[in-house]
Amino acid sequence: MNTPVKLGAFGLGLAVVFTAALGLGRTIGPTPAPAATAAHNQHNKPAASAGNTTTAVPAGLQVTQDGYRLQTISAALAVGAPQPFQFRILGPDDKPVTDYTRSHDKELHLIVVRRDLSGFQHVHPELAGDGTWSIPLAVAAPGQYRVFVDFQPATRTDGLTLGADVPAPGDYQPRPLPPAERSTTVDGYTVTLTGDLVPRGSSQLTLSVRKHGAPVTDLQPYLGAYGHLVALRDADLAYLHVHPDGEPGDGKTAAGPDIVFHADVPSTGAYRLYLDFQHGDKVRTAEFTATAGTALPRASTPADSPAPAAPSAAASGHGADGHTHG
Q1: Which residue, 154, 104, 113, is CA-closest to 131?
Q2: Are 151 and 188 part of one and the same domain?
Q3: pTM given for the model
């Protein structure tokens, strides 16, 4: 074969390979976000992506995983006055799951948050005999919401987190994500964050609770712990639910002011952190924005100067004080 013919055949071969690769890329789609490794005390695992056993999708991004599916019965969330919100978990046999393993004192945890990461709620619906979960629920403002169900079927050794979008009718006015901060206030309490999120690695976070400048040393157990932390990634709302070191009554874990968590985040970028803690027989939620891959200056302490308080949750429009915990 002469040289021009050889070059022509070679070019044709490259065109065929490029076209096939392009078609394959369109079939597979974009590369999923990097997987989070198993977090300390984290009871849900990322879902393996379809057709790929080496990468995983962060929890909460899928409505179905391992044959389990979140089926929302209610088509919308009520704004203002509570209305029943109902859903089911369907198992691999496509039947409602009715048998669960209790995790942190509950068979299922329901997290509700608006797509702009405001309006966070952590509640606990009731299970009917037919597998329907139900709870009176209302949100403060219209918009598109994400609901997460965090649960462990009795037939599994680990938990799952599934998510689905549910609208709340009305004029959606999204709010900007508050800037990253070390300190925030809620209902007279100041909560300070020490530690930084490390992308694709383990992060130790210490949240310290003070009231009117004094350390709180008598936090009350809530769902079997002195605090619960949920982290959601900005934009896609990838979900992390982590729990603190130790537990009440273990003889070594203090009831405040410090609550230590270990969490993994799957990528760089902004995250919203929600800390539930109980004191004075009331559960409160402190919220932070943190950026994985970017360290914030260390917060000042009472030994230095009063810790600067971030705008209150109510003022920022994210996580107004007094939201329901069921």
Answers
A1: 154
A2: no
A3: 0.78
* Cβ-contact 40, 262 below 8 angstroms: yes
Domain residues for the domain of 271 are 183-315
Q: How confident is the model at residue 44 (pLDDT cuts 50, 70, 90)?
A: low
CA–CA separation, 320 and 140 (whole Å)? 9
Residue 40 located in a structural domain: no
The 10s digit of each residue's pLDDT in 58-114 is 899 999 999 999 999 999 999 999 999 999 999 999 999 999 999 989 999 999 999
- Rounded to 5°, the CA angle 96-102-105 comes to 130
The yes-or-no verdict on residue 240 having pLDDT over 60 is: yes
Question: What residue has token string 């004075």?
Answer: 280
CA distances from 74 to 68, 87, 118, 166, 324 (A): 19, 7, 21, 8, 19
Query: pLDDT over 90 for what percent of the chain?
Result: 67
Q: State the Cα–Cα distance between residues 257 and 244, nearest whole angstrom.
A: 13
Query: Are 161 and 190 contained in the same domain?
Result: no
The answer to whether residue 303 scores a pLDDT higher than 60 is no
Is the predicted pLDDT of residue 8 greater than 60, yes or no? no
Nearest to 41 by CA among 212, 172, 227, 209: 227
Burial of 235 (C-beta count, 10 Å sphere; 0-12/13-18/19+): exposed
Other CB atoms within 10 Å distance of the CB of residue 211: 15
Whether 309 shows a pLDDT value over 90: the answer reads no
The domain spanning residue 133 has which CATH number? 2.60.40.1080
Residue 27 located in a structural domain: no
Concatenated DSSP letters for 166-185? EEE-S-----PPPPP-SEEE
Of 100, 147, 148, the closest CA to residue 127 belongs to 100
Contact 141, 121 (CB under 8 A): no
Per the structure block, which two tokens stand in for 233? Answer: 């990634």
Q: How far is CA 183 from CA 35, 94, 227, in A?
A: 29, 46, 16
